[in-house]
Amino acid sequence: MQNQTSEEPFNRTSEQKQAAQEMLAFIQECPTQFHATERIRTELESHGYERLWEDEKWKIRQGGAYYVTKNDSTIVAFHVGTKAGADSGFQITASHSDSPAFKIKEHAGLEVKKKYIQLNTEGYGGMLCASWIDRPLSVAGRAVVREGERFVTKLVDIGRDLVLIPGLAIHMNRNANEGTAYNKQKDMLPLFGGQGCETGDFKKLAAASLGVGEADIYGSDLYLYNRQRPFIWGAQEEFLSSPRLDDLECAYASLKGFLSGRPQQAVHVYACFDNEETGSGTKQGAGSSFLSDVLQRINAGLGNTQEDYYRAVARSFLLSADNAHAVHPNYPEKTDETNCVYMNDGIVIKSHAGQKYTSDAVSIALFRAVCERAGVPVQHFANRSDQQGGSTLGNIAAANVPLNAVDIGLAQLAMHSACETAGVKDTWYLIQAVKEFFSVCFSLEKGVLGIMADKER
After folding, report:
1. In whole angstroms, how far apart are CA 367 and each of 32, 220, 315, 432?
2. Whether pLDDT at 10 is above 50
């Protein structure tokens, strides 16, 4: 079906703008996946969610709300229906906490001609390198600090304009505007200090920001991040730009919708995974058994059998929420002719014949029904047949938990840039759709799926 775009004048409500502003404020507090997980954790606890630990026995009760983290960078929260039992299913949203960035190597300081100190970095994920050049950057992440015989994880955020990746002048590269290939070891190293700075000064700075001695830092995962403040812009304030929209916009909107749910029959689940940008193949990634382990522990905690778990998965549904490519005004030919999407035109349903996206006729139909109930517009995206697109969480997670799943997202420009652009309306659209998703139940009777209000079950 060809997407239908609206020809009506742009009409943004105050609620939509407020949702966008709150989402941007959330992103600004989350320079890395570790900060995003911590921010989500505090939001869950403010709503009464109880922390569970992987190495302890879980005590699960009907009506209870819980969360568990992995690696301090992945978080799964769940709210058990007040009437949840052996016939209940799981309703799940998945997003990811990480974004492409430059990770600082263990021995960070590099001296250049006794005049400069650079930081030695490597690429994390597939970033647009040019977007990182000539803009103020800082450093954030986590450090593992020794306290006596214990090793404690602490968040790090230098929180000031600290480094910059200087571009090469046009006079020294006359072909720069004809296309440049970036070597991450040569072209993308940030400048940290000048004459008088030493190679060990970065670790001193990190230790000072933590209030510990250098020798107390036993390990770290530190990244460069763009210091630019998010902003709303455009002739009618219809656009917003920010670092890390992919995928913190979906992580935020899914969380807001999740927290509005009050399950009765189902178990509501919110998952935000790390390492999507590097393939999800880690202990904290969507390709691990972590989600499956959590769901099975919920099932066992409710006193259900393994057979009950298989039945629950069969009637479960996953929204995999990760942003999508909007039509670019300078390059409209880069997107499919009829399955292309636009900012502010609603939630994107993503499909791929080779199952890079997990959406199929069943999951698309059910999600469209949810959006109809929520009064939210939808769009359909597919890659050009002669171009290879990216993958996301849905097909990876569903390989471990074989449930009905749909890949969705919000349209954006410049994905994987240090500053990405999206539509002001769309965060609100996704919040409303996820709210509705957590207000209905999915039924399965002899292979036939249905959807109804949770209170109707």
Report:
1. 30, 41, 14, 13
2. yes
Q: Which residues pair with 389 in a beta bridge?
A: none
Arithmetic mean of pLDDT, 11-38: 96
Tokens of 230: 């998010």
Residue 455 in this model has a pLDDT that exceeds 70 = no
Tokens of 189: 């190293």
Q: What is the pLDDT of residues 148-182, one digit of tens each?
A: 999 999 999 999 999 999 999 999 999 889 888 99
Half-sphere exposure of 330 (CA within 13 A, CB side): 2
For residue 399, the one-letter residue type is: A
> Residue 224: what pLDDT?
98
Query: For the chain, what is the radius of gyration of the CA atoms?
Result: 23
Cis? peptide before 247, omega within 30° of 0: yes
Assigned token pair, 98? 């990480």
Of 88, 95, 68, 79, the C-alpha closest to 316 is 88
Phi then psi dihedrals of residue 242, to 5 deg: -170, 155
The answer to whether 312 and 109 have CB atoms below 8 angstroms apart is no
Per-residue tokens: 248: 């913190």
The residue whose two tokens read 């791929």 is: 352
Contacts of 3 (CB under 8 A, 6+ apart): 338, 339, 340, 341, 342, 345, 379, 380
